[in-house]
């Protein structure tokens, strides 16, 4: 008996994993019958006995053609491998970077990331297709299922399976197609979030209603934070009835309870206050009198960007202010102060004073009392400052025209239309993350999220250490577009270039900044392995024969990257090469990988010696590519490792043969 086990990674013939079902079986085995069928009434009885209320009638979730298929997609393994852009990643500015840009289908990428990044992401922002009918969204799916396979995997009728496969094949852009597209992506994304993590999703009217109910199902109604309205400056004069110039931003927590415990109350710098305070100083330096300054400030309030500040409608020598209440219910009424302009006692508030007599005198001496009409109680002056903060409102105004200009400035021309406002993304990041958080955007587009992360880090100087993971499909640009004419054949090319150019811009503007302005690039690639899963019997020690197993260097590193991420190693982590009697092995996160052919008995001996002599070399699992090591050598390796582990009393050292 040896400690060699076998594994087929990402087998298409393996029943999709259902982690929630596995958890239920682990913790509530008595709620399943002998055939494995779940017994909901038994679960309900258990919950009632623990004092947990059960509601029989309540919220009804969305149902659509393709939902069963979407549930299958969320659990099926990826069909691709991960490859590293070694030329890019070896460049000095990228070699030690922890930022990531990944090219590929974002569902495939999310599934790859699930093992290494589960419960690791603090904040997600996505700007998915809006399904407007003119944004080129169509549901495309090249996964190969027969109706019979899909019916079995999705627990659906054969007729439903056939209808699902028909609409996935015809490139539909219906609501059902959009929901089928979004559901598995949101589901896997939720698994990546930390317990105090949050997700922000931009959307417009076309799918807003569907998205709200879908998110209630995926994240839970109780974890809904807010629906923000984003007002932009787009002109809608061509509309027949009402010009719509707003979009929506849904905010959900993975666990609102954990978010409330772990994350302090959200605060933002009050939008526009810095501009108003600066304008006051400029006008005063220009020699304008108070009345003239007052007129200029009120003129600013006519613009949507500053309209929410119109309550600060008074000006004196010290700044722009609003008159705030000085009363409270049940306050004292047996004293008052004298109005210095009339010489008369001030009117006592009907509710009573919020301040003591001494405090009122101190405020009066400091010039912080606003007297106003002599027939009304006085107020306290509350000045606008550049550092004002507040709980964020759910109505946001972000002018996108500066971002259009920014794209032109960075690229020399407008190669991407309607980029998201970088200031909006910066606000989202500041709200939903910490200064050392990991931030994910799996619809990266023009790369605004990556730009915002780097910009915020630079503004925070030594304190900012946020990292981004951006994912973008290599979607082709229109051959008539400015982007294509400029050499950007895919959206991914634009994303990559934006991050590079933004990095250089930040570096030029902050010459003393030494933070991370690089990024590593990875991409999904078709799985080159040709083994037939149907021939594999995990009970047998021998794996099926695979022809042409001599791996190119590129294929070897593709396997290495894919496997190490599957085994919990983050993509930017360093991989150490280990020499075993001339054979090159790879060591990362307590895993030793034996991928190339040519492993022999001397290599086994060298491995045991290194285990014995190198205190820093402490693998817990040795993973070999079974196609490149014959059965006899696998057994020899496993026996040697088992003997060594027994001798040293190691219980956590094992050998895994993987296809």
E-strand count: 23
Low-confidence stretches: 530-548
**What is the count of DSSP helices, taking H or I runs of 4+ residues?**
22
Strand order of the largest sheet: 2-18-3-17-16-4-5-7-6-15
Rounded to an integer in angstroms, the radius of gyration calculated over CA atoms is 31 Å
Would you tell me the overall average pLDDT?
89
Measured by DSSP, the beta-strand proportion falls in 15-25%
**By helix and strand content, what is the structural category?**
alpha/beta
What is the CA–CA distance across the termini? 22 Å
- Considering DSSP H and I runs of 4 or more, what fraction of the residues is helical? 25-40%
Quick one: biggest sheet?
10 strands, mixed
Secondary-structure blueprint:
Elements: E1 4-7, H1 19-27, H2 40-49, H3 67-75, E2 80-84, H4 86-89, H5 92-95, E3 100-103, H6 106-117, E4 121-126, H7 147-153, H8 158-169, H9 175-192, E5 193-203, H10 205-219, E6 224-231, E7 246-253, H11 256-262, E8 268-269, H12 273-285, H13 290-300, E9 314-316, E10 319-324, E11 327-332, H14 357-365, E12 369-370, E13 379-383, E14 389-390, E15 395-397, H15 401-411, H16 422-432, E16 438-441, H17 448-459, E17 467-472, H18 482-485, H19 491-509, E18 520-526, H20 553-566, E19 576-580, E20 583-588, E21 591-594, H21 601-613, E22 621-625, H22 631-648, E23 654-658
Parallel strand pairs: 1-23, 3-17, 3-18, 4-5, 4-16, 6-15, 16-17, 21-22, 22-23
Antiparallel strand pairs: 2-18, 5-7, 6-7, 8-14, 9-10, 10-13, 12-13, 19-20, 20-21
